Amino acid sequence: MIALIVRRLLGLVLTLALVSLLVFTVMSVLPGDPAAIMLGTSARPDTLAALRQELGLDQPAVLRYLAWLGGMLTGNLGTSITYGVPVAELIAARLLVTLPLAVLSIAMAMVLALPLGIAAGARRDKPVDYGAMAFAQAAMSLPNFWIGLILILVFSTWLGWLPAGGFPGWQAGVTPAFGALVLPALALALPQAGVLARVARTAVVELSGDDFIRAARAKGLPPRLILWRHIVPNTVVPIITIIGLQFTFLIAGAVLVENVFSLPGLGRLAFQAVAQRDIVVLQSVVLLLAALVIVVNFVVDLCYLLLDPRMRDRR
User: Fold this and answer.
1) pLDDT over 60 at 259, yes or no
2) How does DSSP assign 188-238, residue by residue?
3) 204 against 45, higher pLDDT
4) pLDDT-based confidence at 1, cuts 50/70/90?
5) Would you list the domain boundaries of the chain?
6) Which of 9-13, 178-182, 306-310 has the lowest mean pLDDT?
């Protein structure tokens, strides 16, 4: 068990190193001078030279990569050209929005999807099944930014229950901050809930035909007891798999949703960095988002090993 975890951890470190090299290479081979891109074509030559020196662009690519990687490891990510503050401070402030948004979105998706998927699988080819799968198909078909606009129209404009956008900050209190995250989290959660509901239904249907379930029925166990004691616990592994994969789509969707709701998160920061040509911020944010996805997949892999002993025997 420990050897498996160590191998996975080494694979995690290697993957992060390769991703950092890929991000740096892509940023380095982009056409044009990064300093000229940041300052514009009308910048004076001495200003361009000063910025190139500040960014280390006058050094070889290998030294620039090692310096950037060392800065990532020590928390020194450089200074944003646009905002004039350390990039680490910018990212830390934006994480306080993006991480709670992601956790709330996943929680909402599970609360919506798991009861629907389990009920649909337990009542296959019945009205509950058709209704749940219709919801799942509709949720999967709609873009999350469009869902966000509809939620704003209904719950903010018409009903006035929740704010249409912006974030007051956690210093304003948990309730106002949480209220600002409800609608964007729901916009992110609905498409993921559709996928998760279908996976839960499929897992329940497949397990219902297994030998140990038929044996439980032959013993005369009540259907409700069979469902919650024998079927539902065995759906954990496929559900965890999908939740891990959904985190990638959630991060991608956050870029659009955070802009729709004007949330100061990592997705909006990445969008602003592209618009303002702040490459110092952009490469750090891209690497961090990739690292979050890699770490979540690593955690999901550990959950496999802890929840299913058969996975340990296969590796």
Assistant:
1) yes
2) HHHHHHHHHHHHHHHHHHHHHTSHHHHHHHHTT--HHHHIIIIIGGGGHHH
3) 204
4) low
5) 2-74, 93-309
6) 306-310
Contact predicate 213/207, CB 8 Å: yes
Contact 165, 262 (CB under 8 A): yes
Within 13 Å and on the Cβ side, how many CA atoms surround 151? 25
Which residue, chain included where needed, has tokens 């948990």? 174
The 3-state DSSP class for residue 79 equals strand
For residue 9, give the amino acid letter.
Answer: L
pTM comes to 0.81
The distance between the two most distant Cα atoms of the chain, rounded to a whole number of Å, is 85
User: Domain 93-309's class?
Assistant: mainly alpha
- How many other CB atoms are there within 10 angstroms of residue 211's CB atom? 7
Q: Are 184 and 148 in contact (CB under 8 A)?
A: yes
Q: Confidence class of residue 312 from pLDDT cuts 50, 70 and 90?
A: low
Higher-pLDDT residue of 243 and 184 is 184
Q: Is the pLDDT assigned to residue 286 strictly greater than 80?
A: yes
Dihedral pair phi/psi, residue 84, rounded to 5° = 70, 20
Count how many Cα atoms sit within 13 Å of the Cα of residue 45 in the half-sphere of its side chain: 0
Whether the CA torsion 8, 13, 14, 20 is positive or negative: it is: positive
Tokens standing for residue 29: 């081979």
Residue 13: alpha-carbon gap to chain centroid: 20
Q: 54 near 61, Cβ under 8 Å?
A: no
**Which class for 110: exposed (0-12), middle (13-18), buried (19 or more C-beta within 10 A)?**
middle
